[in-house]
Structures are given as C-alpha cells and as structure tokens.
C-alpha cells in the first residue's frame, strides 16, 4: 500500500474536516519555548498559516539562473512548525504534487476548496487527472547492455506513457552497481574500462570515472559508506584481488592481490571487518577496515561462489559450489563453527531481511536451501525448476528468478522454520526465459519498490520491466525500454523525506515553464495547502523539444527468408505528433554484432514522415541500425538505435 493510501479516506470520506487536538498541551506539561526560525537555503515560494501550523515552501535549485528555470533539478522543501511554540513538527508524512495552474473537477472561486478538490482527484486516481510531478513516487534505474543507464518515472511510464527522465551515458558496458543513499551516489563497475563510474542520483550526471584496478566486477559499499570495495577479476594472479576507494576523495586507498578467480565481498554490520572471497584459490581474505590491513586468510577450500555475514549469529557463511558445502565461521574469532553439506552446484546466497534465514540457490539441481542462522542447520530444501540464479527479498517474501523459466517464484518468509511447510506462489514476468538473452551482468534483474510490497522484474529477452504487487495474480503493468537492451533494475527513492526536524524534502526535475501549483496534504493534522509559483523558460530546452524523434516500425524485430529485407521508420517533430517529412539526406548504417564492417543504405521517403531502407542481411545474427542526417544535425548515435535479428529458415 502506498504511504498516501491512508490519506484517501481522510480527504475523500472525511472531507478534510479534522480537529487539531493533537496540538493541545496538558496543564501538567510546561509550555515549549519558541524555537528559532528555520534556516532557509534557497528561494521562498510561499508561506501560510493554517490551523496553528506554519508552512513554508522553499526551493533550492541546482541551476545557475537566479529564477527557478524549467529542466533543472531542484529540492522542494516544506517546513512545518507549530505557530505557538515555533517547534518543528516531526515524524509527519506529507504528500505533495506539482501541477499546472488548472483547476480539476468543478471550478471554485474559493482557493482552499479548489486545492482540496485537486488533491482529492490525485488521491482517487481520477482518469485524466495526473499531476506533472508526483512527490510521493520514485525513479527506476535500468542497467542496459550498452554503456548506459535509463532513468524512468514508473508512475507515468508504467501507465502506458513515455517518461524516460534521463539517459546516463557510461564509458563502457556496466556489470554491477551499488547505491550510497547517504551520499546520493551510484557506483557502477565497467570491467572493460578498468574503472568505476560515480553517478549523482539527484542530477543523474556522471561525476567521475575512477580507476579501480584490472577488470573491476563486483562493487560493495561498507555499511558506514566510508569505503567502496571493488573486486578485480584479472586473469593475472598478481592483479586479482580488491581495490578500495575512498568515497570522499574517490581515490584508491588500497589495491592488493588476494587470490585467483572471481571475488565476492561482505562486511560486518559495524563496518570494522571486510571479507573477500577468492573463487579459484578457495580462500577468504579478512581485512581490518580501519587500518586496511589483512588480518587472516580463511581456507574453506573448493570453488567459492558466495559469502554473507549474519549479524544475529555473528557468523560468516561461505558457499563452495564444487562440493555443495556451506562453511560457517565465527566472524570475530575467525574459527570454523559448522559445515552444512548439500549437493554440488550451489551458488548465490543471501540473508532474509530479519537475518533469521540464509537462502542458497542451486541452479544445477533446481533447489533452494533454507538455513537457520541461529542453529546453523539446513531446515528446508525446496525445489524450484528452471535453474534458480537470482534472489531478492521484500519484508514478507523471497523472490527467486530462474534462467530457464519466465516465472518468478515467491517463498513466504513467515512460513519458514523447523517443522513448518513453506508456502509458494509464482507469477509470469514476460514470455521468454531470461537465460535466452545471454551476457547477463552480476547486477540483479529484480528491484524492490519503495513500499516494500512490490518488485520490478527485468526480462532481458523481450526488453521489458514488469511491475508486480504482492497479492496480485500477475504483474499489473510493464515498461518497454525502447532503444536499449535491459539487463538489471533498481529503485531510487524520491518520496518526501524528513531531512531535518520538520523539513520534508523531495528532489525533482522542474517541469515546463509557466504558473505552477504545489499541493500539499497532511492526514495528521488534517489539512491541505496549495502554493503558486512561476517557472522561467529555458530557450535551449524549447529548441530541443523540436528535435527529431524516430519510431522504428518493427513488428517483432525478427526476420527470415531472403537476404534483402525492408525496414521502415517514422520521423516526428520533437514531442508532437507532427510527422517530419522532406528529409532527403537521411542515411542508415547497420552492422552484424558483435563486430563487423558497417554498411550504409540510402533511405527513401514514402510520404507523411514515413521512410524505408532495404537491408542486406546475408548472415544470421543480430544487426544494429543507426540513423544520421546532416540537414537535421544528427550524427550516428544521436537517435536511439534499433536491432533486427536474422534467423535461419529452419529456426
């Protein structure tokens, strides 16, 4: 349920006619002394007093212009204080929306009534009434196979509209990522660049591409976010180990060889120790994070594929995929504590949110093991067909993704335990199985939604991201990541957060120029308030809105038969539905992946902005298509690309 779900009854049923008894002080309690006025860092867009509550709307813009300008990122800050005492009102959950200054529903000359009507429509989800900006939502980040990350607003795009807010361009193709919520950053490994990209998750700009050792793959952030640890999967044993980056200076503070093979990384919850597995060496290197000195080397042996630290038991769990053994070590004394034996083929291991259970996947045997961390015993061995390979958790379920099936299995965490029978259910996430895609990254194809009762699931074959809410029989909607090949997904929370006592902040990209309203609702106390403000136009954005937009008319993207295949596409004028006709210098370039000599074909217009080119697809495989036009100022790569797969007649 949405954090604003409770407010629907308040606004719609109760008509926003609450009382303010919560502000009344008893005779026994001393009156609070007036608090100092809030420190404002930006432009004040409005102030009001309603029923004993002082409300100030402030905006802090990332732009350089004095006026609030469309297209820039800005922090909208709502200050809530008690009028009598001046004390900040903490622990509240205000909802807020930004919209054009147009009244929805029955018009009213009463601004307060018009504000209530507008908020009621937002909360009810009235058809055709969608705010320009919803400050109660979040962004979805999609890791692409090409060197980029797509930034999407799910509340819009999953409703059937296009709302790709930004495209983050990387140097090379990404493999893994981890988010720093405190620093508002995203760290993305790029193995072929030997670097880690550092992305600002507020502006969605790449701050830096930092050298991170040879072939950086796994990235892990200490719980205190002081250091970023990067696993280096170099083929040279002298370079295979970890690189540690200072998250403040972005400089390497340690680069050390730890052993051969892939590296997984885990930390104690107090960030005092780091554990680095060395797959081919069969060892685990233990580091003191304060001195960055290696303390010991654990030798469980075998092929180490996963490790995790359990705070409740103070233990480190290490998975040997070759023998099917899970070794348990005391994280402080580093002494062996237990061995849990199963079948060979074990792989990923993760802990449940409460730390009571560790789940281990066995893709080879179609099994999921459930370990009890209190007793270090195997308590369930569950069968999930289709090669389970990825795992994520909500508060109530474990989600298991398989390579050979389009279904996602759900295990009810409350049904786990000695003597209990685990409860299963599943749902479809697209039609093709993800294993057909190949070249999957380490980053997970499942991402938990903000409300912690829903997930996004990437299907890398049909290039869609499916949204599933717990309690439903199937995903409620899907987003097609056009122009890119989706590989992984995660969510960046953009709901209003209490960043200081009584200060509730949300960061958004300022919408189009003109008169806008910010509408705010509180359930406790029961009140609404709307503020009007002006947004200046950005001439560069106005010009960009008229840039060409391409729509490839490919029914399936799969062709058979003759080598010569026609491809059609349509050009539009910017965001409008006006076709762009008369472009006589369009060129189409295509090549067979992974690498071949590119070819160019002439493009002819069929009328009404519709164009066609004939491709010579002589060999089976995936072909990538790009467009360019000198008269439109378009070079190769400016417009989204398309892909066509040529199959043999018998396929």
From TrEMBL:
<dbReference type="InterPro" id="IPR015943">
    <property type="entry name" value="WD40/YVTN_repeat-like_dom_sf"/>
</dbReference>
<protein>
    <submittedName>
        <fullName>Cytochrome D1</fullName>
    </submittedName>
</protein>
<dbReference type="InterPro" id="IPR051200">
    <property type="entry name" value="Host-pathogen_enzymatic-act"/>
</dbReference>
<dbReference type="Pfam" id="PF02239">
    <property type="entry name" value="Cytochrom_D1"/>
</dbReference>
<dbReference type="InterPro" id="IPR011048">
    <property type="entry name" value="Haem_d1_sf"/>
</dbReference>
């Amino acid at each position: 349920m949405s954090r604003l779900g409770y407010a629907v009854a308040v606004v719609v049923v109760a008509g926003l006619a609450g009382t303010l008894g919560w502000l009344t002080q008893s005779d026994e309690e001393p009156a609070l002394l007036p608090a100092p006025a809030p420190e404002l860092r930006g432009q004040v867009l409005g102030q009001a007093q309603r029923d004993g509550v002082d409300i100030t709307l402030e905006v802090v813009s990332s732009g350089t212009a004095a006026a609030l300008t469309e297209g820039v990122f800005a922090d909208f800050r709502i200050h809530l204080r008690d009028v009598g005492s001046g004390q900040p009102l903490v622990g509240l959950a205000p909802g807020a929306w930004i919209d054009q200054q147009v009244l929805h529903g029955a018009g009213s000359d009463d601004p307060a009534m018009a504000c209530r009507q507008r908020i009621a429509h937002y909360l009810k989800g009235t058809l055709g009434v969608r705010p320009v900006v919803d400050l109660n939502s979040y962004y979805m980040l999609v890791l692409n196979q090409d060197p980029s990350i797509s930034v999407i607003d799910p509340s819009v795009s999953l409703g059937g509209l296009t709302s790709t807010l930004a495209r983050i361009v990387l140097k090379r193709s990404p493999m893994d990522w981890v988010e720093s919520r405190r620093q508002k950053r995203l760290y993305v490994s790029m193995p072929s660049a030997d670097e880690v990209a550092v992305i600002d998750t507020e502006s969605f700009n790449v701050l830096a591409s930092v050298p991170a050792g040879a072939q950086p793959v796994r990235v892990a952030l200490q719980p205190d976010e002081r250091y970023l640890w990067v696993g280096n999967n170099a083929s040279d044993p002298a370079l295979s180990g970890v690189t540690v980056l200072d998250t403040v200076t972005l400089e390497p503070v340690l680069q050390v060889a730890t052993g051969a093979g892939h590296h997984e990384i885990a930390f104690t919850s107090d960030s005092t120790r780091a554990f680095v597995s060395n797959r081919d060496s069969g060892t685990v290197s233990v580091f003191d994070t304060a001195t960055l000195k290696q303390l010991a080397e654990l030798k469980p042996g075998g092929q180490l594929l996963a490790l995790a630290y359990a705070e409740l038991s103070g233990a480190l769990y290490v998975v040997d995929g070759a023998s099917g053994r899970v070794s348990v070590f005391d994280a402080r004394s580093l002494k062996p504590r237990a061995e849990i034996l199963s079948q060979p083929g074990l792989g990923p291991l993760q802990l449940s949110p409460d730390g009571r259970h560790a789940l281990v996947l066995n893709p080879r045997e179609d099994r999921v093991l459930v370990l009890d961390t209190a007793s270090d015993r195997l308590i369930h061995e569950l069968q999930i067909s289709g090669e389970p390979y990825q795992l994520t958790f909500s508060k109530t379920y474990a989600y298991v993704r398989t390579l050979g099936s389009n279904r996602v299995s759900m295990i009810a965490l409350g049904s786990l335990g000695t003597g209990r029978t685990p409860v299963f259910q599943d749902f479809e996430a697209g039609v093709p199985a993800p294993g057909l895609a190949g070249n999957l990254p380490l980053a997970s194809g499942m991402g938990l939604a903000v409300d912690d009762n829903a997930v996004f699931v990437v299907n890398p074959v049909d290039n869609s991201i499916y949204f599933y809410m717990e309690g439903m029989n199937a995903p409620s909607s899907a987003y097609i990541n056009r122009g890119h090949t989706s590989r992984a997904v995660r969510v960046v929370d953009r709901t209003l957060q209490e960043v200081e006592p009584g200060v509730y902040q949300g960061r958004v990209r300022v919408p189009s120029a003109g008169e806008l309203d910010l509408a705010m609702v509180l359930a406790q106390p029961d009140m609404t308030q709307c503020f009007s403000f002006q947004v200046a136009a950005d001439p560069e954005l106005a010009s960009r809105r008229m840039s060409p937009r391409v729509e490839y008319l490919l029914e399936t993207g799969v062709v058979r038969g003759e080598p010569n295949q026609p491809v059609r596409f349509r050009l539009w004028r910017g965001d409008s539905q006006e076709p762009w006709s008369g472009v006589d210098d369009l060129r189409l370039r295509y090549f067979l992946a992974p690498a071949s000599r590119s070819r160019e074909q002439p493009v002819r217009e069929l009328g009404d902005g519709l164009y066609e080119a004939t491709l010579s697809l002589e060999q089976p495989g995936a072909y990538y298509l790009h467009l360019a036009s000198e008269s439109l100022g378009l070079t190769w790569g400016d417009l989204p690309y398309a892909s066509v797969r040529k199959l043999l007649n018998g396929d």
